[in-house]
Amino acid sequence: MTINKFIALLCVSTLVFGSFTNAYAIEDQFEIGATVTSSDVTAPSVPTGLSATAVSSSQINLSWSVSTDDVAVTGYKIYRDSVFLTTTSLSTHSDTGLSPSTTYSYTVSAVDAASNESSQSSSANATTFAASSSAGGGSGQHSQALIYDLVVVPSQTGAIISWKTTQPAVTSLAWGKSNNYELGTSVGTIYTSIHSASLISLDPGTQYFYSIEVTNGYGTKTFLSNLTFTTLPMGEFVPNPTDFKAQARQADIALSWTNPKDPDFEEVRLLRSTVFFPANPSDGQVIYEGDLEGIIDSDVNVGVTYYYSIFARDRNGLYSSGSVARARVLLPGEVVGPDGNIYDELPKSPTTHPLIDSLTFLDFDFIQDGRRITTFSGKSQVTVDGGKNLTVSLDYEKVPELLKSIIVTLTHPSDKEKTFSFLLRVNDEKTKYVATIGPLGESGIYNVYISIVDYKNQGLKQILGNLLATALVGLEKENNVYQTLLTIINKNRLNILLIILVSLILFKSLRSVIDRNRRRMRVSNINV
Amino acid sequence: MNKIFLLLLVVLVSFEGVFATSMTSSNYSIQIDSVNFGGGFGSSTNYVGESTFGEVATGPSSSTSYTINAGYQQMDATYLAISTVSDVTLSPSISASGGGTANGSTSVTVTTDNPTGYELYIKATSSPALVSGANFFSDYVPAGANPDFSFTVGAATSEFGFTPEGSDVVQKYLDNGSVCNTGLTDTTDSCWNGLSTSNELIATKTSDNYPSGSATTLKFRAESGASNTQGAGSYTATTTVTAVAI
Q1: pTM of the model
Q2: Among A133, A475, B39, B174, whose CB has the most other CB atoms within 10 angstroms?
Q3: Closest to B190 in 3D by CA, of B211, B206, B169
Q4: Which one of A16, A35, A40, A74 would you mutate to disrupt binding with B, by most B Cβ within 10 Å of its Cβ?
Q5: What is the dihedral angle through the alpha carbons of B175, B181, B184, B187, rounded to the nearest 10 degrees?
Q6: What residues contact A431, with CB distance under 8 A and at least 6 apart?
Q7: What is the C-alpha separation between B154 and B2, in angstroms, rounded?
């Protein structure tokens, strides 16, 4: 083949085969349509009774009678000077930011969920006050706005205060723990006759001072001061039995406790489990109900650990959070070991929720006389009155809902072997884990061990702290002096008798000596 | 003679683009072109008319979309055509409250002489596909990985879906009478899926179907649950079907 023929062949080949390198595709576009129709085609009735009232140099209040609809009125459209202003679901509206000494015209229409709109109402006009207004007497508009129907509704940590004024007015409310109202001021900007303020983050069982100032549209002020209210005290649970002990013997377990000294106390319910402490009065086998202060549990097996929870019940059928104790009848030849810490004996959860991990002693509230104790030493010691009931609580939202138990163990100030454990249990409102115990009775530092346990009975966290208790040592603290004297006498009967006897003997001897001396002096006088 | 051939070679190198593709888009390209001395180009989204000097073009007229092949080009072109797809109006109207179902369908025919056949895809231009301002029907979501044999909507929701039917429908949309993507039955009004903005393969053939072509029926359904409140208005879904020669 000559070079010329080769080149020709190359060209033809390129022409024929050179373009088979592209894909083939073709498309078309089309539309799909659907219609959704409203079955409600009836507009609401036209609003009636529209009134416009100027309340200041910059505000006009509107009100009207509600409309009706075959389905429901969902709102109202407000027009000012024929221009759409706003929509509201109420039958009133305050139009603010207006110019002084200016007349405005309003109409209102009603709308429903299907966007049906009624015709606009008849118009209502009002003229805002002049920019500078003088206070004082004369017409009713220039007199003071009087405050009436003042109502305070306190809760444990807040209060809602409401009041009315005889004229539309703006208001401010200041409050504090003294009449310096140091905690804050709430200021309203809308002229209205109905006012309210909601105070939050207050301390339970505490008196607060507050003042109210109202200013009408003409700048005239009315002032009320040195008003007070008291927040509600923090509630107590039913007090738990105290000194709950489980003592393992050769073939049974002796259980003892002290019933709470609560006038409403009725009886206790004692439950047993081999898994863990029964968490509530229904969690476990009931082995006793009554008002005794001890029983023997003989239905036990050797070598098995038994967990006991005892709950006090009051006349209202309410149960305490529960005191706990555990015991184990030893196997033959087994030597009793030291009574270990509940938390140390638990299997540990491999993971701990961050909420639980961040808990500290300060997250727990210690409450006496309905008030939270705020006397802390450092971060882990709280001072309590050892002569009063003590409530321990933890806010519900501070821990996730994977908990089963929070167990608090106290050790005696002078005998660390003496411990007393009780449960924190969720209240009915599911707002707190709570427990109440009776007066500690003795002064000193009680070590506190708080064990947090999950639903698998695994230990999650232990928190350590102290209770510094102050109380009359060894005596029942009573307000009645006579009872106190009686107690002293009862405890020292023998000593008192001995003292009286010796005193009598001494008195008789002394009298005898005196009489003898008197007789001698008479004889001497006669002889003289 | 050598100079002529050299000149021809230079022309071949310089005008490579002309002989490769003269017109391209993201959807199609003209395979073969020629240096034109006569006639003219007419183009639309569906066809390209092309003439070469000295020859008269003829071609099939049974479909609305075609490419005319003429002269020495005819032996080298692959024929691929898609019929114009009619718009769909779902009916009846759905009540804004109380629920309801609206159905509609259209058909698309693909014709090709490609010996290895074609693939047909569908997609929507928006997600959700069926909208009216701020209101919409959610794109249908099957309960599992396969299309739902029965179209099911919750009482408080509204959804929009489709199903293809025809002899070339892919396995995913075939059924065994109760389950989709199983069996070889193409049960009517069964195997529902939702449109997306990505191409979904719905039909394919591995051989040519020239000149009769293959028709695939596209069925659409919008349903509002009995306790759903659907905004009143006119809803629209813009959909694209694409045929590709394999």
Answers
A1: 0.46
A2: B174
A3: B169
A4: A35
A5: 30
A6: A395, A396
A7: 80
Query: Which of A21, A25, A114 is nearest residue B243 as measured by Cβ atoms?
Result: A25
Nearest to A30 among B24, B87, B234 (CB): B87
According to DSSP, residue B124 is labeled: E
Contact (CB<8Å) B104/A25: no
| Structural domain includes residue A25 | no
Cα B245 from Cα B231, distance rounded (Å): 42
CA angle, residues B216, B219, B220, in degrees to nearest 5: 145
In terms of domains, do A329 and A273 share one?
Answer: yes
Asked which of A207, A230, A253 is the last residue of a domain, the reply is A230
Mean pLDDT, rounded, for B33-62 = 37
Which of A230, A255, A278 is the last residue before a domain boundary?
A230
Domain that holds residue A202: 140-230
Considering the domain architecture, whether residues A62 and A104 belong to the same structural domain is answered as yes
Query: B81 Cβ partners below 8 Å, 6+ apart?
Result: A26, B63, B65, B66, B67, B110, B111, B112, B213, B243
DSSP state of A156: S
Same domain, A399 and A456: yes
CATH number of residue A396's parent domain? 2.70.50.30
| Residues A393, A490 within the same domain | no
Helix (H, G, I), strand (E, B), or coil: what is residue A35? strand
Instruction: Note if the bond before A439 is cis, omega within 30 degrees.
Output: no
The CA-based angle B146-B152-B156, given to 5 degrees, is: 130
* Nearest-angstrom CA–CA distance, B161 and B163: 7
Name the domain count of chain A: 5
On whether both A382 and A409 belong to a single domain, the answer is yes
Residue A223 lies in a domain: yes
- Residue A439 neighbours by CB under 8 Å, 6+ apart: A386, A387, A388, A389, A390, A471, A477
* Domain assignment present for A528: no
How far is Cα A324 from Cα A417, in angstroms, rounded to an integer? 16
Distance of CA A203 to the CA centre of its chain: 10
Q: What is the pLDDT of residues A270-308, one digit of tens each?
A: 999 998 899 889 888 999 999 999 999 999 999 999 999
In chain B, how many H helices and how many E strands? Answer: 2, 13
- State how far the Cα of A168 lies from the Cα of A152, in Å rounded to an integer: 21
The pLDDT tens digits of the residues spanning B137-149 come to: 999 999 999 999 9
Most confident listed range (A425-434, A497-506, B223-232):
B223-232
Size of interface A-B (CB pairs under 8 A): 170
Neighboring chain B residues of A36 at a CB cutoff of 8 Å: 93-96, 132, 135, 224, 230-233, 235
